[in-house]
Each structure stands twice: as C-alpha cells, then as structure tokens.
Amino acid sequence: MALIDNRPRRCSCRRMNMFYLIDTSGSMNYNGCIDSVNAAMPEIVDILTDISSSNRDQGEIYLSCITFGNDARMLYDRPVAAPDFRWANVRAGGLTNLEAAFRMLESQMHRSSGLNSEDGHLRPAVILMTDGDPDDGWESALEKLQQNRWFREAYKIAIAIGANAGTKMMKRALTKFAEPLDAGGPMTIINISDLTRLHEVVRFVSSTVSRLGSQSTGAARGVGSVGEEINNAVRREFNPVDGVDIPPISGDDRPWW
Amino acid sequence: MKHLSHSSYYCGASHKADGREVQDYAGSLVIPLDDGTEAVVLSVSDGHGSKQHCRSASGSRMAVETCLEVLSAYRSQLNEQECDAFSIHGVGEDYCNDTEKLVREIIALIMAKWSRRVLEHLKESPLKSLMPGARAYGCTLLGAFVSERFWLVFQLGDGACACLDRNGKPCFPVPDDERCCCNVTTSMCSQGVDDFRFVYGSKVPAAVMLCSDGVENSFLSREKLGTEFFVPLIAEIDSKGMAAVKADIAESLPLISERYSRDDVSLAFWTTEENAARLAPALEAIHVTCRKMELQRLKADLDYCTGDINRIEADIADFNDEDENDAAELIRKHSVLATLRRQERELREDIEYLETAIQNFYYED
User: Fold this and answer.
1) Do A77 and B336 make contact, defined as CB atoms within 8 angstroms?
2) What's the complex ipTM?
3) Structure confidence by residue, pLDDT tens digits, A2-19
4) Considering the domain A12-245, what is its CATH architecture?
5) Which strand (E) or helix (H) includes residue B200?
6) A61: closest CA among A153, A113, A125?
C-alpha cells in the first residue's frame, strides 16, 4: 500500500465561511433597499459558486445568513455550500435589533454550531449591511462577539446604506463592528448614498472577500495582508464612484461618527 | 547508528495548472562529527508565491541552502551542548541559557546570510517594479539538526514539524505562532530572529519530519498528518526499505497535492535504521488503531448527518408550498438538505474506503 492510499478523506478541502448580517428593519423598505439585497444575493451565490469550484486550492465556500428586524433569525438552519445555496427573498419590517444579530452570530461561531466541521477552516468573513441606528444593547453584544476567536480572526466588512448626519449611532456601531482585531489590516466600511449602487457594492465585496480569503497562503507581509488587499480592492473599485464613500477612519482622522 | 534521511519537493497541482514554478524547496545532509559519529541536517522552505513575492522560488532555495550550510558549520558546537532532555522556546521569549543563545546566533546568521544572498541576487537582476526588494523573495523556514546526543528544530512561518517519540507516538513539539493562522504566515522577508520558535534537547526522538503547509493542509489536522502519513512512512522503511520509501514519496506527494491541498509539497525527514526496525510493530499498531477510531468517528458523523436529513425532510413534508412564506422556507430547507446530502455521500465514500483499507491491511498481514 502506497502512502497516498492511507488517506480516508476523499477531499480535505478547507472551508471558508461567509456570514451575511442583513438588516430587515422597516426602513429597508424605502428606496428599494431590501429589493436591492434580494436582487444581489442570487448573483452573489453564482459568483461564490464559481470561486468555490475554481479555487479548490484550499477554499470551499459556505454561506450563512442572519437577518435582523424585531429579532434575529438564521435564514438557513446550517451553513450551506455555495453550489447548494438558493436564495429566497426576505421581507423588511420592524426595528433594528442589531444586538440580537450579534448574539446569534456569536452563537454560530463555535465548533459546535456554525463552524462545526472537525478542522480545516479558513479565516471567515462577516458582511454587515444596515441602514439605520441600531436599537439599544448592541454594544454589550458586540463586546462579547469581539471575544470570540473566530470573530476576532474574521474579515469584517460594514456596509452603511444611506448613512447621513442623523445616523450617528449606526456609524458608531459599524465602526466598532469593523475593527479588524486579529485579522489585521485597515478597517473596511463602505457608505452607500446612491442606493442604486447597493447591488453592485454587495456583489463586489462578496466576490473580493471570498476570492482573496479562500486562496492559499497570502503572506503579503505577515499578518493582515489579506485584509489590506480586500480594503485596497474595495478602494480601487469604489473610491472615485459617486454615491459610494469609503470614510477615512484610522490614524489621526476624526471619528466617522 | 545508521542515519536515514531524505528530502524532496514537488510542484503543486494548482501551480502546474497556472504554469507557475515550484516555490517550495527542501534539503538534507548527513555530516560527520568530530567524535566519529554522524549528524543529519534538514531544511524545508515554502515560498509565498503571490505577485508581490515573485522571486519566492529563489528565496526558498536560498533559505534552505543557507540553513544547511550554517547548521553544518555549527555541527560541533551543537553536538557538544549540555542541556535538559527537552526544552521549548516560543516566539518572543527570552533566551535563557547558553544553548538558546547559540540557537539565536545560528538563526541570526542564517537570516543575515539569506539577506545578503537576496541583495546580491537583486544586484545581478534588479526588479522592474518599485516594490521593496527582499519582499519578492518571501518564504518560510524550517531547520533541524539531529545527532546521537542533541537535537534542534526551529521554525519561522507555517508548515509543520512532526516527531515520533521513543514509543512511536507522533507529536508536534514546536510551539505554534498564533500569527500563522488560516492563510497568513510570518516570513523571512519581514520578520526577525525573535520571530522564530524552536525545540531542542538531549533526549533525541525516534524520527523527525519537516514539511511545508502544502503537505500539512492536505490533512484535516496535525494528528492525522502524524497518523496517516508520518507513521506509515517510517513503518514502510522496515518493511520495504529506504529506496522503496523514496519511490513511494515521489509517487504519493504529487498525488496528495493533486487530490487535497493543490499547493506545492515538500518534506525532509530523518530516522535511523535501528529506530525504524524497533518501532515497526508499534507503528503498525498505531496506524490500525487510528484507522479504526477514524472509522468509528465517521460512522457517528454519518448517523448525525442522516438524522439531520431525516428531520429536515420531515419539516419539508409539513410545508404548504402554496403559502408564500412556506415557499421561501422550502427553498432554504432544500439548500440545507442539498449540502447535508453532499456531506452524507462523502462520509459513505470515506467509510467504505476505510473499511476496505482495514480489511486489506489484515489480508496483507
């Protein structure tokens, strides 16, 4: 028997988990926000399926979706492999219970639930989309989430839908959420004022994160290199685009909020 | 004591598909010592391979050659070390005795010589882009020295060092660097001496293997790298001989890359003829026991998966697909079901494979 015959696993391809946190509060009904999300998701799934099947270097992509309105909900009982994922439209209504979404995400980022296969996980990605000030309580939930090992490692991207001067708490929540922690690199926050761009931004961010995150060793410059590449790609794509703003937050810049 | 060592590196399946060169490198040498015995030095390096590391194939080759050269030069000092049976030094820890200070000196010399070679190479053929030069040569490094009375393994970046203890049990003694997680690694191009971690001691293990992450990532865990690869590799030496083992590695490593990690694969290992013969029965027992345990685990996973499938199928039967909410929920349930069925299929294939392998093992005996 040769050494190769000692392998019981037909495939030990590693898994990259993509978590989508989608605001389904009532305000998402205005200006077609929720329709944009519903239109973007099937396209994202197609893109992720292509990336997952072409980039079997190390990354098989799994998707999880958490919606939050009056409460948070796992749309799919378990993480679904990209080729198996079928999107069913969601409706908007209710409050912006970001606290419940953070708590649900935390509960999914354990070996016993969302990250439940034995080994072989790549750094996950969490994409948060929201359009309004969250209800009270999100800060303590985020503090707990930020202690979770997988969340600390995750690439975190915040998409603010139509943030204006009046949505100070949303800006604060997104800034806190997008702190890179152990993923390193700069923070990635995208503010979309032209809502017709939402679809395009969500699609680009998803494909960039999944493509870079599911590749083999990046090691651009040690820690944080992939986070930096994601941020740079987003900046290259959207910085000169009207209606899409990437606020400078790091260093001596004044807080976004 | 007859030392047995070998090193090899192969182009990864994804590299072949993209027309990229192999960016791993590995080497091993048997070197004479002043006391009439011999020592072995091993090294493995994995070039990062992305666009900004466009010369990492050269970087990894230089790293391995420099490592073997420096370890060979320090052979006498290393062999004469008086130290504890086993010591571990993590990233950033103080160098607390003469042996650790010597290791630091060796690593510093390797890094300095590597940097000098990189600069010379850059001078001979400058980069067209304005990127910092050394970054183009980015790579990891694993190095080992083994004699009858002393051993040392050091590591910067990802990859693994597997050892067999004197009972043949696999272990991974080099401490982890938490920065080398998921798909990110520390590197010769951006880190310093204090970023290395190492193990050393007077209680020499029965076998040592260094490998790149292309080999390590082909296994779902380090434990499996030990029991499914390193243990059978050393067991094979006694039953088939070293020449057959080398031929098996040449056949199996490219296939492992093709079927699993798809990355470049490289390894260097050492044992002795005496250790291989003494441990052969224990290694076979470990190998078979691990397979049986794996089989049990897969069967438990399959039960769990089948239970989930049954529950979701029962849920689906209760839905009314004319109701709009139910219709959306049905789509989601079917997505989950498709993934679970895929997992169930793979588990069944794995179980069948393992059952056959265990039967064949007893049949061959």
Assistant:
1) yes
2) 0.87
3) 787 766 554 456 788 999
4) 3-Layer(aba) Sandwich (3.40)
5) strand B197-201
6) A125
